Amino acid sequence: VQLTESGGGSVTSGGSLRLSCVASGYTSSDNLCMGWFREVNGKEREGIALLGSDGTSSYGESVKGRFTISQGNAKNTVILQMNSLKPEDSGLYSCGAEHPNWIDGAYTCPPTEIYGFWGQGTQVTVAS
């Protein structure tokens, strides 16, 4: 699976950016758990928005209410809409993915620590 991000850039505080991640190199009928992660100021990469193979979403506390993750028009695309951006949101944003597990009759996403597919990342800079 290859992941390609786009949409990063520079904005002023309070602005918005829209990131896109396209997955390729896998069977379209397969499910993927996908999410957005970021590295800020040399800190450890954190998961900020996750999209389950069933369409459910979850967010980190630092972005809840400001960021929205969604599936794009194509099944292999995930979008991160970032509003009300703050300077502390600046960092390298990466798309991560992993195949879900089939457990008790349902697809379940594994912990993000074992996500095995990653994009190169796209830089987001928010000026005060």
Describe the structure.
With 128 residues, the chain is mainly beta. The strands form 3 sheets. Strands 2, 4, 5, 6, 9, 12 and 13 form a 7-stranded mixed sheet that branches. A 4-stranded antiparallel sheet has the order 1-3-8-7, with no helix packed on it. The protein is globular and about 50 Å long. The protein is 0% helix and 52% strand. The chain has strands at 2-6, 9-12, 17-24, 33-39, 46-51, 57-59, 67-71, 77-82, 91-98, 101-103, 106-108, 117-118, 122-127. The mean pLDDT is 93. Strand 10 and strand 11 form a beta hairpin. The chain is built from no helices and 13 strands.
Layout of strands and helices, then pairs:
Layout (H helix, E strand, L loop, with lengths): L1 E5 L2 E4 L4 E8 L8 E7 L6 E6 L5 E3 L7 E5 L5 E6 L8 E8 L2 E3 L2 E3 L8 E2 L3 E6 L1
Parallel strand pairs: 2-13
Antiparallel strand pairs: 1-3, 3-8, 4-5, 4-9, 5-6, 7-8, 9-12, 9-13, 10-11
Summarize the structure.
The chain has strands at 2-6, 9-12, 17-24, 33-39, 46-51, 57-59, 67-71, 77-82, 91-98, 101-103, 106-108, 117-118, 122-127. With 128 residues, it is an all-beta fold.
